[in-house]
Amino acid sequence: MKNKLDQSFFDKDALTLARDLLGCALVHESEAGRTAGVVVETEAYHQSDEASHSYRGKTKHTGIMFGPAGHAYVYFTYGMHWCFNVVADEAGVGAAVLIRALEPVEGIELMKRRRGRTQVKDLCSGPSKLVQAMGIQKEHYGKPLFDDEVYFLPRSNKKIE
């Protein structure tokens, strides 16, 4: 796909990336089908923030948060939910952007099956909900987000192509 965001788009501090991702589309091409949603809520994390997983330094679990930018940081929380983040900033800095909510725009029937919900507003209205609806899994940890499976498209008023 020629208009995917490339790695250079993600090479910025987490606060800037969090703003710049708003309005972009997250796409997942899976064997089950293609799903996509427009990013409507984000949250930036930096290693200087006590709430950040990178605050205590680089570990096996948080290593990807320290670069390179534009890769997926997927983690399990509360013993039951997965969350999806986009690594930001320069290599060596622990920073990422949590994707908190999407507006579903493609693959809605697949999202409904994955979530066991019928209302579109219930599909991607939270970090773990969107991971389930989009079919993002722990295997996506560390994967580039400018590749062929999970990627972002730039802001657009047009239909996702």
Describe the structure.
- The protein is α+β, with helices and mostly antiparallel strands.
- 17% of the residues lie in helices and 30% in strands.
- The chain contains 4 helices and 6 strands.
- The chain has helices at residues 7-10, 14-21, 108-115, 127-134; strands at residues 25-30, 33-46, 72-77, 81-87, 95-106, 150-153.
- A 6-stranded antiparallel sheet has the order 3-4-5-2-1-6.
- A hairpin with a 3-residue loop joins strand 3 (72-77) and strand 4 (81-87).
- The longest helix is centred in the N-terminal third of the chain and has 8 residues, at 14-21.
- It starts with 6 loop residues before the first helix and ends in an 8-residue tail after the last strand.
SSE layout and pairings?
Layout: H1 7-10, H2 14-21, E1 25-30, E2 33-46, E3 72-77, E4 81-87, E5 95-106, H3 108-115, H4 127-134, E6 150-153
Antiparallel strand pairs: 1-2, 1-6, 2-5, 3-4, 4-5
Helix pairs in contact: 3-4
